[in-house]
Design a protein that fits this description.
This protein is an alpha+beta fold and 97 residues long. It is built from three helices and six strands; from the N terminus they run E-E-E-E-E-H-E-H-H. It is 28% helix and 38% strand. Helix 1 crosses helix 2. The relative contact order is 0.17. InterPro entries: Acyl_CoA_acyltransferase, Gcn5-rel_NAT, GNAT_YJDJ.
Length: 97
């Protein structure tokens, strides 16, 4: 389990989620699975409405992509938001299957 720290953002990695805390309050999460074929599958990304429009969803996607890169995994996104963010970021696109 890893923790990413930003100014007001902490992201904790658990077995199947990245949990995002904004100013010590849980603000969102990204759910994922890692399969035996070397694929990190993103199933859902969610940020609470009161924390919207701060780029927190993208922070969750970035952490998932960093984890995939670190572990030599490809990404399959069932989550439309995460897929869209990965596709529009040139340095992330090559990880999609």
């Amino acid at each position: 389990m890893a923790t990413q720290n930003y100014d007001m953002i902490n992201i904790d990695q658990n077995d199947e989620t990245f949990d995002l805390f904004y100013d010590a309050e849980k603000a969102g999460f990204l759910e994922y699975n890692k399969n035996k074929e070397g694929v990190l599958e993103i199933t859902h990304t969610e940020v609470a409405e009161e924390f919207g429009r701060k780029g927190l969803g993208m922070e969750l996607v970035k952490v998932a992509v960093e984890d995939a890169k670190k572990n030599n995994l490809k990404i399959h996104s069932l989550c439309p938001y995460a897929k869209k963010m990965i596709e529009k970021t040139p340095e992330f696109k090559d990880l999609l299957v």
